[in-house]
Fold each of these.
Amino acid sequence: MKTTRFATTVAAVAAAALFAGCATSPTVTPQLQEARATVHSAESDPAVLKYAALDLKKASDSLRRADELSVKRESPADIDSAAYIASTQARTAMALAKAATQEEAIKAAEADRERARADANAARARAAQDQAANAQMAAAAAGADANNARAQAAAAQADAANAQAQAAALQQELNDLQARQTDRGMLVTLGDVLFEFGRAEIKPNAQQSIAKLAHYLNQHPDRRILIEGFTDSVGSDSANLVLSQRRSQAVADALRAQGVDPTRISTRGYGEQYPVASNASTSDRAMNRRVEVYISNDNQPVRARS
Amino acid sequence: MNQHSMMNGRAALLACATLALAACASAPPPKEQMAVARSSVDQATGNAAEAPAELATARDKLARANAAMARKDYVQARQLADEAAADAALAQASARSNRSSRALSEVRESIQQLQTQLNRS
């Protein structure tokens, strides 16, 4: 009896053991399902394969262990623990892959930043250079202006000096000719020393006075000239009139020979009219024998005597 | 007859003893796993400040593993030690990922600033 009962017990234990070994449905817990999903998503992530292959393998191995426990129908606590470890290792692999990817991105971004920095520096340098160039140009322009102004001032000064010198020279010439201002213009009186008695040819030694007068007139091409001839009271009126006309014409011819435009020149003979002295003495008569040259103060003909 | 019965009884006892021993042998104190867990958690404590939740989980697991060791629940202790080591590794990885994420956005922000500056000038 005893033996039989014992045998039955052994058989039952063996059967139970056998049953357990042959069980076809494994124990699957929610934690295991979660672990499978997590490991699977880590396995399908290219970044994980690239940067965290070792950690992914740990996760895969742990999941395999959990699956084995599941097949053996071990306690859910054991399965859950193994599954938890697999899941955690898969998450670790993904975190490492994400970190490595970001670290790569940081390197690229740092290169970008260096480029941007270089660009910013270059832009600043360009701006500064432009500014400097502009300033230089402005300075050069100002310098050129200053030089110009100086040159102009110098030229003006030279012109002024020149004009002054010219004016002085001309004034000197007029002084030499003993010119004096009258209400009809500048008057130069050529005395009878120019002419032989009773003749109208200018003496050779009088040419110098004519030359000075011509020079002055050539320097003032706008001025007009009126040449008036006079005699003393000796001789007939008509002869004196003709003589005075010829003498004034002789002076006009001499000026024309020195380059003075004849259209500027008018001549008149007044004979013994308009004496400047009494005709009573030789010296007075000598003063009356004369040629007066009037030079206009502007470009209008010299007014005739009225 | 009686002797046979005695022999059977011995065999049964032996079988029981063997089973009991086997149960005991399957769960020796997990010293190695505990050491790994401790060093992993120590390491994470030093460099996983950026992943406080994961770090807290790892430390909690290690504390519970120590408690299991103290009550000689070696099966539990081993599981908790393995989990604590995995948690500590996750804490370190997450911290590194969080650090690089922040660094990346900082670099990108500074590029944005430079570009704004460039466009202004």
Amino acid sequence: MLLLGCLQTSDDKEPIEIILNKLNLESKSAENDGLLGEHLIMEYEKDRISKFGLSTLVKHRSQEKNGDRYGYDIESRSEGGHNLFIEVKTTRGNIKTPFIITRNEFNKMKELSKIGEYAIYRISLYESQYRIIKIIGIENIEAKFDFSPIDYIYKVSTFSDIKSIDLNLNT
Amino acid sequence: MDLTFLIYIVITISIVAYSIYEEKLHSKRQIKSIEDFLSSILDTSIPSINTEPIEEAQTTLTNKNSISIDNDTNKAEQVDPINNSNIKKEVDDNLINKVRTPTNIIPKETASEIETLIEFPQKKLTQEESNPSDYNRKEIGELGEALVYNFLEKMKDDSDELFHESKINGNHNAAGYDIKFISKNIEYLIEVKATKGPLYGRIILTSNEVSKMQNCGTSIYCIYRVYDVDLEMNTGKLACFIGSKQINEFLIRECVNNRKFAFN
């Protein structure tokens, strides 16, 4: 913890855009684009904090057992030495393409921003180039994105007394 | 230059502080080695006919302060737990005492390690067990619609009209309902929600469906809740909620499920 205190702090809260070229995407073993994006960010984050000797602190949470429960994909360290919880969202093509945040991810976003820094890394893959937009901090996420519901959870009231009909496709 | 010097000072202080802390913890660390040994003894999956490690393990129990953590762990793994009942009894007693009073004897981190080690191995869940609501979701949905369509077809009069919209359009979500039923010039828009589970289980309505429910004009929006669906027997049970009044009365919206994020 003492070592972490030595890191320089950054006041830059604006979204940061990074473009990296000539990636050999085929060499990455990934079941889908989402996992490929997470692998890219793992490498990117390890490289980013390797100058502080902290690259071992980068953890690929979504690939752990029951990884979905975390509500984020990668745990790293921010420039200020705080825990940085990263949700990676990857699509092919346009970086402006909307993406989906699940209920658990959305709830965790608010919880995690209280105990560390939360960030969305938006990746677009296009041929051998990928663009990353980093949006750090829940205030920035709320300011930069419009989020609209895709679906809702409903349930029948347990107090209701409802008559039912038996159905059978064979009769 | 100042910053570098400051970093240097902080690192030096932290190293010195850590070494002092390490020395103070030295006696507590011995307990950790015992805990490793105890947990290994309880693991019956590693039998061995070699008697040497047993003697060493006994030494570990009697001379707690003389064995280092790493050596202890390696040797303890080779002990045959079945043929050494004396050791096992001693181990059991020790473990029981320590688990009962973890805060008095064991440092916090060691206590949590024991908790993890004595945890029963979890059975690997099948896809159906781990997420019953998602398993065969498509098949359940299709059977639910087929059951309702079949039911309405039998009920309808000659003058009534019945359309399986989700099959006609192909795009399931486009219309915001699955079946259209026209009877006596009244148009019923029916959304079928089928699950394997009970009536009171969760269902998901898309924003498109909710929007259609709220803005269906002169039509009557209905939710046909098919539950206890049996894919093998092709059966299920049906509860009908007809019109917005009944839907609002019997169905509760719990929360938003997924959200779409788009750059503004």
